[in-house]
Specification:
Organism: Salibacterium halotolerans
Protein name: Phage capsid protein
InterPro entries: DUF6366
Keywords: Membrane, Transmembrane, Transmembrane helix
Pfam families: DUF6366
Number of helices: 3
Order of helices and strands: HHH
Radius of gyration: 19 Å
Length: 71
């Protein structure tokens, strides 16, 4: 019985196949991604709970800044 793959697993498999077929393009993309970062991979890796914690943390940091530092 074949196990169903999650969408993120399918996407990772497609990325791996693309890397194998286009090695030079992969090197160029990796160079540019290293300069700017790729926020979609960050969000995908965190999941919805981690993303929610990130948003709440940023909001809390802004409140502390607004009350104590700028105040």
């Amino acid at each position: 019985m074949a196990e169903e793959k999650r969408p993120d697993q399918k996407q990772e498999k497609m990325k791996e196949q693309e890397r194998r077929h286009h090695a030079a393009g992969n090197a160029r993309d990796g160079y540019h991604r290293a300069e700017a970062g790729d926020p979609s991979d960050l969000i995908r890796g965190l999941g919805w709970k981690g993303f929610l914690i990130l948003i709440v943390g940023l909001f809390a940091a802004y409140v502390v800044y607004a009350l104590f530092i700028r105040g």
